[in-house]
Amino acid sequence: MTLQDINNRIREAEAKAGRNQGETTLIAVSKVQPNERVEAILEEGHRVFGENRVQEAAGKWPQFREAFDDIELHIIGPLQTNKARQAMELAQAIHTLDRPKLATTFARIAQEMGSCPDLFIQVNTGEEPQKAGVLPADADSFIAESIALDLPVKGLMCIPPVGEEPSLHFALLRKIAARNGLKGLSMGMSGDFERAVALGATHVRVGSAIFGDRVPPAG
Ligand SMILES: *Cc1c(COP(=O)(O)O)cnc(C)c1O
Predict the structure, then answer these.
(1) What is the CB < 6 Å shell around ligand 1?
(2) Which of 29, 146, 175, 209 is deepest in the core (most CB within 10 A)?
(3) Which range marks the domain in which residue 38 is found?
(4) Residue 214: what pLDDT?
(5) pTM
């Protein structure tokens, strides 16, 4: 699909749901994509991108920023505490705040930097042991804790379990956000972004539908 197709489908899903046009931000997930593909999307005028590894993001986005203005980079993958500073320096948003240690680390570094990227708290809506994110039952207290640290928490993020109806997870995420007064909802990927838009996504993270299949890294 072209970038234009994806944008059209997002606008149609917004209209169907009675939402305002343009309320949903498309994050083009460029992880593991060759630079030429990313450049092509930049040339088309798109500026919002997602990467799930800090290392990889640091290896390619500084150059793209030299060539293109106003790039907005979102870190969407699990984050080790020792990568927090690098992530905060690189990105305008981080979607994977998921534990107290990371929250206190962000708070300390934000104080030193005098700024902090927008933050989303990842919720493990499917309660999968291998997946990052706070459990739904712990979400309210962790959100409160993070806000008490003065962190700019904009919303919540989830990755539904493979093989389950994602809408149930999107609805749960929306409910947790609403009762905590959070507006941002980072949910929906290539296979389900229209369902996410229908349930109020403010950010959809779409990779393969835009770029084509991810080329496995060499080695
Ligand atoms: C890779 C990735 C995506 C994009 O997945 P696609 O199915 O290629 O759209 C979205 N969110 C996260 C957290 C990812 O790691």
Answers:
(1) 29, 31, 52, 76-77, 159, 189-190, 205-209
(2) 29
(3) 3-15+23-210
(4) 76
(5) 0.96
